Amino acid sequence: MIQRWPTSREEKWKYTSLGALSQKTFAPSAPVALDFYPHDWGISFVFVNGFFNADLSDLHLLPKEVVALSLSQALKTHADLICLYGSREFDINQYPFAASNTASLSDGLFLYVPKQCVIESPIHLTFYSTEQNDFMSCPRNIIVADTESEITLIEDYRANFDVTGYFTNAVTELTTKHCAKIHYVKIQDEHRTATHFSHVFVNQSAGSHVDTFFVDKGASLSRSELVVHLSEPDAVCDMKGLVFLEHAGQQVDHQVVADHAAPGCSSRMVYKGVLKTQSTSVFNGKVLVRPIASETVSHQESHYLMLSPHAEVNTQPQLEIYADNVKCTHGATIGSLAQEAYFYLRSRGMDAADASAMLMHAFVSDVLSAVSDPAMREYLLMRIDHVEH
Amino acid sequence: MLVIKNLHVSVRDKKQDVKTILQGINLTIKAGEVHAIMGPNGSGKSTLANVLAGREGYDITQGEILLNGENIIEMLPEMRAAKGLFLAFQYPVEIPGVNNMYFLKAALNSLRKHHDLPPLDAMDFLKLAKKKIKEVGMDEQLLSRAVNEGFSGGEKKRNEIFQMLMLEPTLAILDEIDSGLDIDALQKVAAGINLLRRPDRSIVMVTHYQRLLNEVVPDVVHVMVNGKIIKSGGKELAFELEEKGYGWLGVDENIT
Description:
The structure holds 2 protein chains of 2 kinds. Chain A is an alpha/beta fold. Chain A contains 7 helices and 21 strands. Chain A has helices at 19-23, 71-77, 79-86, 96-103, 339-347, 352-369, 374-385, and strands at residues 27-28, 43-48, 51-52, 67-70, 109-113, 123-129, 135-137, 140-145, 150-159, 167-176, 181-188, 195-204, 209-216, 221-230, 236-245, 251-260, 266-275, 280-289, 297-306, 312-321, 327-335. The longest helix of chain A is centred in the C-terminal third of the chain and has 18 residues, at 352-369. By secondary structure, chain B is α/β, with parallel strands linked by helices. Chain B has one domain: Rossmann fold, CATH 3.40.50.
């Protein structure tokens, strides 16, 4: 599967060991017949064990001018567009798992939103795992928002309760052309025995706006690399992440890179996590300001709440600044539940569980309330609270 | 209502040295009574209030606290609340991200659940809250803010009294509820406390000043010094203290 396994000697892999994973073998995923999958909302694309299932999907709200095809279909009919936006070769040393995704591609979505097309309904991609154990699926999504278009996209990983030990290795490429907007949400609620690796590559043109919102609560080991290229002037990227770990031994690793390669761009990273048990969270936020990228504004913060003495958080800012006249800030905190507030709530009659749940909600409330669409905020809150497995 | 017998409490400081704060408190509060506990700074008044509410970090080395005949020393704070005990904090805690109304509804419904009452729905709760908030003269808009966040000192204290009126405790312990209040706010707070007074409810006020006691007239006044109650009397005792300080009781006034 992987030619050369990264080791903890590499900065990006310092806190995530691949020892156990490298010992496992995974069967390729096979299409599974599924009769029913409930739609949450919006325009829905359902993938079962990595393969697009047209019968379970609901595309009736999708504007006609939009090209939306499963990747396997798009490769046949729109190979030219795919070559233009998704033909990236991943350096096997820098992104070994993305390269492996290319090699064992299963399926995914190809979405091309034409100029000035604004899609109101969220486009919800569900990757559902069921029936098969110990398999690997490699979804690949290629999303292009052409000039002045706007979409909301949810990439959502869920699983049936009885499926174990599988491996998701996903790659998503987002491209925003001039002044286009993508609101991107990724929800990782995989089965707690699963391994979830994902790469999200963002390439932004001038004046475009991307916001990303990662929710991680499932999987035994989850690792996300978000790499944002601000390649033309005045692009804006707002990156947020929430991590909720409640199963012993869980690990979530976020590697986030904002690559400022043009002047006047701004990026913002805010990641927060709550670790209820003996679990591990990693946040490595890198801001690269290239010599050309003057007038860059960048802000980064990460905050973690540890409710168990055995929880572990590794958080590090990495700022590489090669330009003048830039404004870069960063901050990180790691703490436990505010005992004063905890006692205050309990003194009013709330039991320990209710009081700590209330304080956990409070801890992440600023990140959630920054989601501008109230329906999306409600949906995220519902998914955060929902216990799947 | 409340019987405290020979209560000894100590804490450990940063160097892990044991410091005894309460050195044998005896106190009996009957239903319907209002008691005031006065005394110099550092005499242990706030410790007593916090120990009653079940705050962690105190070692109870001796004694009993009986609430309606039941020893509550091992009881969790939320259980004490369910048994009717309420502490108005000297320094109400700011909780960013928790809506004041949401918090209070959760608290009230926790207590109702404990008494096998159905939860109040949002409408009924709002009706009740709007009625009670008027009684303490608190701005209704504070309901939709985060708990105590950015409240002025006076607003925080009114919020404590507002919560008390919503939760209707049978034993209210008010820890320096009058500190940091201007005259108007003091009167509103006092009026709120008087609203709670009923033959089946008791109130303990920890205070430094006579002025609150003019508005909420206590049945009994205690003077606490060095972790002991050295004198108890009627409401006149508060006047004497106001006039003469603590010196005439044989107490070094500069004690801390």
